[in-house]
């Protein structure tokens, strides 16, 4: 159970390695990673908002979506998605093209510039993450890697890989 004694004082009662305590530590780490991610996007040659970056990443993962599908994946309204795409198109990162079989449907396609910007942001993120991981002791990095694999396996419902001990449940 989390007890808030004052600003910034999030302490968990009980065991320091219990699920509640670890969840709080992970939440803090995620906030730090989110800051790292945002800073990498802001330091790119072409500054992107988080919404623009999400749109580009979504189109990279699912090429040639139409506007409706992009809006659904981003959980935003069609007018908002349209304005977002207008800005990305004006910046040269996105092209709209008519679907060859359905002339009423417009596909959204990343340009070379769009791919280049995503690559730059990914590179900056990797550099920042590498710097943080380099500051850690090798045993800590190894433990973090094992912990992340176990967390992802637990989230997906998959059993731990061979040779890895099951987590405390």
Structural description of this entry:
This protein has a two-stranded antiparallel sheet with strand order 1-2. It has a two-stranded antiparallel sheet with strand order 3-4. The longest helix has 24 residues, at about 20-40. Helix 1 (about 20-40) packs across helix 5 (about 110-135) and helix 3 crosses helix 4 (about 80-90). The chain is mainly alpha-helical. Helix content is about 60%, strand content about 10%. It has a domain at about 15-125: Winged helix-like DNA-binding domain superfamily/Winged helix DNA-binding domain (Arc Repressor Mutant, subunit A, Orthogonal Bundle), CATH 1.10.10. The protein contains 6 helices and 4 strands; from the N terminus they run ββααααββαα. Mean pLDDT is about 80; it is low at about 1-15. It has helices at about 20-40, 50-60, 65-75, 80-90, 110-135, 140-155, and strands spanning about 1-5, 10, 95-100, 105-110.
End-to-end Cα distance, whole Å, is 17 Å
Percent in helix = 55-70%
Total E-strand runs: 4
Principal-axes shape call: elongated
Q: What do the pLDDT scores average to?
A: 82
Largest sheet: 2 strands, antiparallel
- Give the C-level CATH assignment of the domain at 15-127: Mainly Alpha
Q: Structural class of the secondary elements?
A: mainly alpha
Kindly report the CATH topology of the domain at 15-127: Arc Repressor Mutant, subunit A
Gyration radius, to the nearest Å? Answer: 21 Å
- Strand order, sheet with most strands: 1-2
As a percent range, the share of strand residues is: 5-15%
For this structure, the quaternary state is single chain
Please work out how many helical segments DSSP would assign.
6
* Low-pLDDT residue spans: 1-13
Q: What is the level-2 CATH architecture name of the domain at 15-127?
A: Orthogonal Bundle
Q: What is the CATH superfamily classification of the domain at 15-127? A: Winged helix-like DNA-binding domain superfamily/Winged helix DNA-binding domain
